[in-house]
Amino acid sequence: MKPWFVKEADIIKFPEPESKVVELPNVQSYPDFLTGVKDLHNRKDKGEISQDSHDKLYSDLINRFMKKESFETPWFLREASNDELQQVKKLLLKQIGSEKELAVLKKMLSVMRDAGVDDKIAKALKTDADAEPLVQRLVADIMNTEGTVAEKQHFAENYTKGFININAVLTPNQKISIKQILQNEMAPDPKNKDQKQTSFVYAVFDFLATKYAPAGVGPGEVALAVLSPNITRVGGGSSAIGDIKVSLGKKDYYVEMKGKNYNAQTKKTGTAGRLVDAKINIADATGLANALQKAGQKGQRISLTPSARARASIPLVGAENSVVSKIVKARKDVNAFANEVAGALFSKAPDVQAKAAQLIAANSPDILNFYTRTLYDRYYKIKSKAEKGKLAGFFFINMQSKSFFFSTNFDATLDAGSSYDTPVYLTDKSGGANGDARELAPAIVFK
Q1: Could you tell me if 420 and 442 are in contact, meaning their C-beta atoms sit under 8 angstroms apart?
Q2: Other C-beta atoms within 10 Å of 192: how many?
Q3: Burial of residue 8 (number of CB atoms within 10 Å: 0-12, 13-18, 19+)
Q4: How far is 142 from 392, CA to CA, in rounded Å?
Q5: What is the Cα–Cα distance from 334 to 325, expressed in whole angstroms?
Q6: Minimal CA–CA distance to 274: which of 384, 436, 447?
Q7: Which pairs count as long-range contacts for 175-181, CB under 8 Å and 24+ apart, including other chains?
Q8: Integer Cα distance of 210 and 260 in angstroms
Q9: What residues have CB less than 8 Å from 171, skipping those under 6 apart?
Q10: Residue 198 to residue 187: CA distance in whole angstroms
Q11: I want to staple 297 with a disulfide (CB 3.0 to 4.6 A). Which of 54, 165, 201, 292 is the partner?
Q12: What is the pLDDT along the chain (447 residues), one digit of tens a residue?
């Protein structure tokens, strides 16, 4: 007999889910690397995980099982029993496609080891003791780049020749495409299933420039260093002359790298590299905030000039609603204000403060170019004091438009069609001192 609360109740059936909720696999649960590779591959084929999720999990899997390597006897063979060797071989062949591609894999490992690629990228990618076999990680990523066996074989066989045209990258003040800086390429293989129009070398450069760019490393630094025996990533922070060293003949060129990244899958762009460095900054953030607050600008973010990306701020100059315009309309001493702001904005460049004050008092947006030029010139002044060399210029790279520019002259950089990628903020969001030195620096980009 059913109790009264069951007999009298209006039972509502709990709704069933319309679709299964798929839980992402935990890479820590896999007993070994090959099991993880196979499971992720199967899940992607079944549509349980996306390509992005597969790539992220595959990277996590590599990092988990990454160990010190012997190129002659890699760990997956050393740790396999005799019975497992054939299974390992089958899984590897399934992953790389054929016996011929296995030979390409071995060749690529060999040439990159001999070329010292691990040393070239260690400063950019090595974060702890478990991340030592950088060459293996890099080669695995290159082998997984879309391309035919013939294209990968050509890449391995021509690697030591270098795929970066040094004369092209050192062509000053001329905007060129990424394609123009590459050399020793094989034309796209007609057997490529996607009938791509770019070479495998181009695909590898694009991958390295967009994916091998951790925090603090500009897009293109690792790509240039890995793909050329004549380019080395310098590293070393503010004490280094430049980000990379390019060798041509007996001469070395030290170059700062400023790049704008792009994710083709998400269609999202990063911010272009700013002209910022611990020894290059010239602005006094506290002095700027004090000068602006004294002029009545409290509780409001102030940008240097108008910008579409700075709609929530008030510009210092260059518009009818600018701080300078308000001071003029209020019949206050605009020259005294301009002198105080110029002194703070150019605190470490006293020789240009008078000119800067004139531009500010005139409500001129040219102050942005003047400020950028001062920072640009200061790079050369500071970075050329080292005994071993001096700064040769800047590499600007835009991975969205696939453009490249070697800048050695600020005026030529402006004439070549450069623009500013982000606003320069003189204060934080509440009108106080801006503690983010990057926001006080302009970012140059080429379309």
Answers
A1: yes
A2: 15
A3: exposed
A4: 31
A5: 9
A6: 436
A7: 175/403, 175/404, 175/405, 175/416, 175/417, 175/446, 176/403, 176/404, 176/405, 177/402, 177/403, 177/404, 178/202, 178/205, 178/206, 178/397, 178/402, 178/403, 178/404, 179/402, 180/404, 181/404
A8: 9
A9: 406
A10: 8
A11: 292
A12: 556 555 555 555 556 655 555 577 888 888 777 678 778 878 887 888 888 888 788 878 777 766 444 444 555 455 445 554 455 455 444 545 555 666 776 777 677 666 666 555 554 444 433 334 456 667 777 777 788 888 888 888 888 899 999 999 999 999 999 999 999 999 888 777 666 778 999 998 998 888 876 666 778 888 898 889 898 877 655 556 788 899 999 899 999 988 887 666 656 666 777 888 878 889 999 999 999 999 999 888 999 999 888 888 999 999 999 999 999 999 999 999 999 999 999 999 999 999 999 999 999 999 999 999 999 999 988 887 655 678 999 999 988 889 999 999 999 999 988 888 889 999 999 999 999 988 999 988 887
Q: Is 164 exposed, middle or buried (0-12, 13-18, 19+ CB in 10 A)?
A: buried
The stretches of 47-81 forming alpha helices (DSSP H) are: 51-65, 75-78
Distance from C-alpha of 65 to C-alpha of 31, rounded to nearest angstrom: 10
**CA–CA separation, 71 vs 57, rounded Å?**
25
What residue has token string 């170019």?
Answer: 369
CB neighbourhood size of 391 (10 A) = 20
Which amino acid, one-letter code, is at 375? Answer: L
Grouping H, G, I as helix, E, B as strand and the rest as coil, residue 12 is: coil
| Structural domain boundaries in the chain | 285-446
Question: Residue 118 has which token pair?
Answer: 């691990």
Q: What span, in angstroms and rounded, lies between the C-alpha atoms of 169 and 224?
A: 10
Q: Which long-range contacts (CB under 8 A, 24 or more apart) does 309-316 make?
A: 309/422, 309/423, 310/423, 310/425, 313/423, 313/425, 316/292, 316/341, 316/360, 316/367, 316/426
Reading the block at residue 225, the tokens are: 């260093």
**How buried is residue 136: exposed, middle or buried, by Cβ count under 10 Å (0-12/13-18/19+)?**
buried
Q: Which amino acid is at 67?
A: K
Give which of 163, 164, 149, 58 is closest to 107, Cα–Cα. Answer: 149
For β-strands 251-260 and 391-398, DSSP reports them as parallel
50 by DSSP, 3-state: which?
coil
- Cα 384 to Cα 242: distance, rounded to the nearest angstrom: 10
